[in-house]
Amino acid sequence: MKLKAIISAFALFALLSFTSSEKALKFDYPKQKGTEISLSSDHFKKFKEEWRGSDYYYFGEGDGFVCSVLFYKLNEDEKLSLVEVPKAAMKKSAEAAGKVISADSPMFAYAYFKNFSNLKSMEVDDQSWGLASDDFMFRKNKVPLEGTNFVQTHMYGYAMFGNDLFVNIHLSKMNCSENDTKEMEAILNSLVKSGK
């Protein structure tokens, strides 16, 4: 009986040792159903939430990491200029290549946020990955803080819902170690778009 209890305790300990402490964090645009995304991380305990006009913003920080999620609602003019016109312009070449550009491709959000970044003039080592046919496209770069030895690493995930809602997931950390960079990439790789 004692042996059985010891084996059970050992099995429970082993199970708990391999259980991830990361929790799935969920975000959505409150005024539109089917817009949920999630990511896994144990760095962020609580997010502040606020409306910014018609956009919805989440902000959290922990262990030196900062995470924000912006649901950017396009108005009719933006929908036309940022999605419909580029999509129509690319349609012919996409069809010739045997591809279809979906209305909710992350490439539209990626192009917008990359081109209109507040930090664009300071960004160095900019790298991108992901395909227009994926749920997310990604980008990372560094921003050296002028006059200091500090460098802030930024990573982004971009998604889109329907033809009028961009999502920008932003992670940053000051003076990232190699492990911090891997952790940020793992957070981005955990992104799931479940509100299709």
Number of strands: 10
- Report the radius of gyration as a whole number of Å: 20 Å
**CATH topology annotation:** Protein Transport Mog1p, Chain A
Q: Major beta sheet, specifics? A: 7 strands, antiparallel
For this structure, the quaternary state is single chain
CATH class, anyone? Alpha Beta
Number of domains: 1
Helix content: 25-40%
Query: Which series of helices and strands comes N to C?
Result: HEEEEEHHEEEEHE
Strand order of the largest sheet: 3-4-5-9-8-7-6
User: Which class of secondary structure composition applies to the elements?
Assistant: alpha+beta
Poorly predicted regions are 5-20
Number of helices: 4
Beta percentage is 35-45%
End-to-end distance, in Å? 52 Å
CATH architecture: 3-Layer(aba) Sandwich
Q: Average pLDDT, to the nearest integer?
A: 87
Provide structural commentary:
There is one protein chain. This protein has 196 residues and is an alpha+beta fold. It has helices at 2-17, 76-96, 106-115, 178-189, and strands at 23-27, 37-41, 48-52, 55-62, 65-73, 124-129, 137-144, 151-161, 165-174, 192-193. Strand 6 (124-129) and strand 7 form a beta hairpin.
Give structural attributes.
196 residues; alpha+beta; 7-stranded antiparallel sheet; 10 strands; 30% helix; globular
Short description:
This protein is 30% helix and 35% strand.
Tell me the layout of helices and strands.
Elements: H1 2-17, E1 23-27, E2 37-41, E3 48-52, E4 55-62, E5 65-73, H2 76-96, H3 106-115, E6 124-129, E7 137-144, E8 151-161, E9 165-174, H4 178-189, E10 192-193
Antiparallel strand pairs: 1-2, 2-10, 3-4, 4-5, 5-9, 6-7, 7-8, 8-9
